[in-house]
Recover the amino acids of this structure.
């Protein structure tokens, strides 16, 4: 199993550009989520999904869109990049154990710089 | 929503000493409390977790304790080694996880 994979590993954008961060998992996990990590801020939840066709907002959703058309994939879209979105982005997945939280597995991360 | 406070933000110990990191949470519905270790440039890796129906859990040199009444939980690392140097995050939640801001642990030989 590859686990949770993310592409690209690094990306530099100019202000106003759009892009999609890719995330895929091969563990058949229903729950997938996106976090951003900034120095001294820990990991903050952007969006999450409990299954195909179902998404919800986390703590810091503004400026980001998500969709979940398959169990395996959960892409994160930046509609119009801003310097404040410079961060490291982590995708994570876990099984949906009766709705309660369970062991969560992280992808390797995408380091995004917006100029 | 849930609020998680983590202390200290940095912790320096000598090899062989013990290290303790503490977290408090606000949502009494939270029932899952994992701890993650993150090395520089790497992804967070789960090192130990505890559920609300358990007061303490141990795995070799690592232990976690939970006090649901006081809404706090702690990570204990005994006999620290230089390879324990990393950033440690606590988290708390029921269906989604809220993370603390992290503790940088430095173990000096």
């Amino acid at each position: 199993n590859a686990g949770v994979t993310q592409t690209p590993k690094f990306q530099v954008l100019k202000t106003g550009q759009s892009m999609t961060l890719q995330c895929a998992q091969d563990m058949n996990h229903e729950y997938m989520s996106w976090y951003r990590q900034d120095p001294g801020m820990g990991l903050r939840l952007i969006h999450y999904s409990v299954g195909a066709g179902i998404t919800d907002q986390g703590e810091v959703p503004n400026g980001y869109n998500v969709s979940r058309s398959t169990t395996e994939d959960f892409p994160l879209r930046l509609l119009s990049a801003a310097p404040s979105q410079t961060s490291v982005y982590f995708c994570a997945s876990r099984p949906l154990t009766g709705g309660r939280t369970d062991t969560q597995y992280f992808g390797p991360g995408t380091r995004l710089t917006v100029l | 929503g849930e609020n998680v406070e983590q202390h200290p933000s940095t912790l320096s110990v000598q090899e062989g000493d013990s290290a303790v990191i503490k977290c408090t949470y606000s949502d009494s519905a939270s029932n899952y409390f994992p701890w993650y270790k993150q090395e520089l440039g790497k992804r967070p890796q789960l090192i130990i977790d505890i559920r609300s129906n358990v007061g303490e859990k141990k795995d070799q040199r690592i232990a976690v304790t939970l006090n649901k009444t006081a809404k706090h939980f702690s990570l204990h690392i005994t006999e620290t080694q230089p390879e324990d140097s990393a950033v440690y995050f606590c988290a708390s939640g029921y269906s989604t996880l809220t993370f603390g801001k992290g503790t940088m642990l430095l173990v000096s030989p």
